[in-house]
Amino acid sequence: MKIALLMIGKTDARYFAEAIDEYRQRLTHYVPFEMQVIPDIKNAKSLSESQQKEREGEMLLKALQAGDYIVLLDERGKEMTSKQFASYLEKKMGSVSRRLVFIIGGPYGFSEALYKIANEKLSLSQMTFSHQMIRLLFIEQIYRAMTILNGEPYHHE
Prior knowledge:
Elements: E1 2-8, H1 14-27, E2 33-38, H2 49-63, E3 69-78, H3 82-95, E4 99-104, H4 112-117, E5 120-122, H5 131-149
Parallel strand pairs: 1-2, 1-4, 3-4, 3-5
């Protein structure tokens, strides 16, 4: 199984990009991991929120592959502790045959088409974070989960 992270728009802040790359490199020691950036929509300011979600949804759908298990990172999704997330990943690694795909949507969330095909929704917090921060927070949580599953001393309770 491979873990994939799809996201709308590139990471602009260099300090976030460097930290994301650090955790991405660390993750490759545990599991095949890929990140795919879907380009920002051109002239987005001239579109309504629903039009932006639809266009982003179309681009995200094109990036998906047959057999993907799709998890939307959504404010209305299920919340977990880091240990629960590690257990969740362990179960998925045993049951998902191809790619476990996590998707970070655009500023207005996801299109109805994505909600319809998603297998699950996860929430990282009830708080709102920038898309730049969520990328870093989520990839760090995947790394943390891998260290928990391997009994390494990164996670403390």
